[in-house]
Amino acid sequence: MDLHFRDVEPTDDERAAVDALLGPPESSWEGAERTEADLRWSSGGHAARGRRDLLLPGLHALDDRVGWISEGGLAYLCRRLTVAPAEAYGVATSYPLFSVTPRPATVLHVCTDLVCTAAGASALCAGIESRLGGLKALKGLEGGDRVAVRRASCLGLCERAPAALAVKTGDPVRTAVAAPATVETAVLAATAPDSAPQEPPAEAAVPRTGQPAPVLLRRVGVVDPSSVDDYRAHGGCTALRRAFALGPAGVLREIVDSGLVGRGDAAFPTGHDGRAVPVGRVWQAAASRPDQPRHLVCNAHESGPGAFKDRVLMEGDPYALVEAMTIAAYAIGARRGYLYVRGEYPRAARRMRRAVDRARARGLLGDDILGRGHTFDIEIRRGAGAYVCGEETAVLRSIEGYRAEPRPSPSSPSSPSENGLFGGPTVVVDVETLVSVLPILTEGPTASASRLVCVSGSVDRPGVHELPYGATLGELLARAGVSPDLRAVLVGGAAGGFVRPDELDVPVGSGVVIAFDGTVPLPRLLSRVAEFFRAESCGLCVPCRIGTVRQEEALHRLVDRAGPAAADDLALLREIGRAMRDASLCGLGRSAWNAVESGVDRLGVYG
């Protein structure tokens, strides 16, 4: 699509939204009134292009204020940033939370992913749509009073499935959560967000089972997440002071000696060579690069089905993440960090923004932190959907203001630690891994010998469970109270694989575990996995772009087929799966066949 500037002006609200982010335009080249000086020379082009990374925040500003991104609003934002409208249009349309066509001021996002589907999301959506349609007809709701119902991917509220999130645009944006949602509570959240039931505190997602005292979750539900003083009274900033005493090299040595590895949610390894990468080695690689701006990126975009531990940590212990990011930045020599929070986490984003602001006011961020001469600050960036942003190079492109597309599987010269954000050495790390640094520095290297696992589905105590490494899947499910009618367990979310009830004596190797009982139709579940990957493919590489579509088509046919026709589609599925696994550019495409393959081979679905 070839877009160019036309005689389409932004509305006053759109102009105000962009100007609130970027400041007032300084010349007619940026949208101000033309003066005589503007007729003689242009200025600001290079400076504006240097702010390309503000494109995503600018799109959020427009969408937050008016509910969608119009051609006039987009053209004004592009003029301010000197970005080609066609490029900006491509970025805006790559994120599912944005709309470039008019929609009502209130959008009700209803999760239809794996856990919520098993909990009756389809019937919930039908009831909500019927009820809201009746309300419109009865009360004549028009314009800003109308509600759009969007069937969404995972909202990260899996422990309270089914879930719905209402977003009402304006200044400021208002949000309300209904989880577990009924037709009545979801409609109330959409039509009267201020009267909706209050969202449970973060600690409600942390089951207390009498197991050994938690380490990473020790402050969730204990401290006031808004209070710096309460955080410090419960051991906060102790690790930061010890980091300053050790020095950057000493911190790196402690992390290397601990053997800490990345703790993402998926079941596949984090290393490009198929092996887990020690965090300390990655940090050392970034710190050893020639002196140039280094960056730290905390990727809190956990958007895979069944993942919600980052949300719990950010909502329940936000200052721990601020402290951990400061320590990591000190170790690698970074002066700026970016916290990339998924767009479906409005409360987590609010709490992290408040924590960053208050930490800065108390001398825990900014210049000369704690009087030790270290300068570091955090900038919060909101995602807008797109599961692929969980991939480390895709999230960097998203922050830079481009489409969230991964780089080809990197050889050494293009790895983020050498050539990352804005071309500088960059460390990309997840929330749990960062928070694990704090006990390592205060209690020794063995203090990181536990991990967090999100458990949801057919269990009595869903939530974030902290357990030692080596604990088995059976032990975890016993702690969570698994259903006696257990049919299958999905380990690693949509990117993982299924385990049978007689295979639970294996160590937990993933941060996501979803249990399904006999009431869940497994063929429909596999189809939903395929729908997820088809919708979330960024489309950059052919194997993933085409393969996810063909996989979904074959699985939908298999629901109604049997005999030779089914055998043909199963053979086709295997061929597609091998092609995606061997030739896709990133982990999304390479893992899109995992759950389907294990469902067919291990569970005997379609057998």
CATH structural architecture of the largest domain? 3-Layer(aba) Sandwich
How many strand units?
Answer: 13
Calculate the mean pLDDT score and round it: 90
> How many domains make up the coordinates?
4
List keywords for this structure.
single chain, 607 residues, alpha/beta, Glutaredoxin, Rossmann fold, 4 domains, 5-stranded mixed beta sheet, 4-stranded mixed beta sheet, 13 strands, 42% helix, 12% strand
Please characterize this protein's 3D structure.
This protein is α/β, with parallel strands linked by helices. The protein folds into 4 domains: 12-92, no CATH class; 106-200, Glutaredoxin, CATH 3.40.30; 228-448, Rossmann fold (3-Layer(aba) Sandwich), CATH 3.40.50; 469-601, NADH-ubiquinone oxidoreductase 51kDa subunit, iron-sulphur binding domain (de novo design (two linked rop proteins)). It has 22 helices and 13 strands. It has helices at 12-22, 45-49, 55-66, 71-81, 85-92, 114-118, 121-139, 183-191, 228-233, 238-258, 279-287, 309-316, 318-332, 346-361, 392-400, 431-443, 473-480, 522-536, 542-560, 564-583, 587-591, 594-601; strands spanning 106-111, 147-152, 164-168, 174-178, 295-300, 336-341, 377-382, 426-430, 450-457, 463-468, 486-491, 497-499, 512-517. It has a 5-stranded mixed sheet with strand order 10-9-13-11-12, sandwiched between helices. A 4-stranded mixed sheet has the order 2-1-3-4, with helices on one face. The radius of gyration is 24 Å and the shape is globular. It starts with 11 loop residues before the first helix and ends in a 6-residue tail after the last helix.
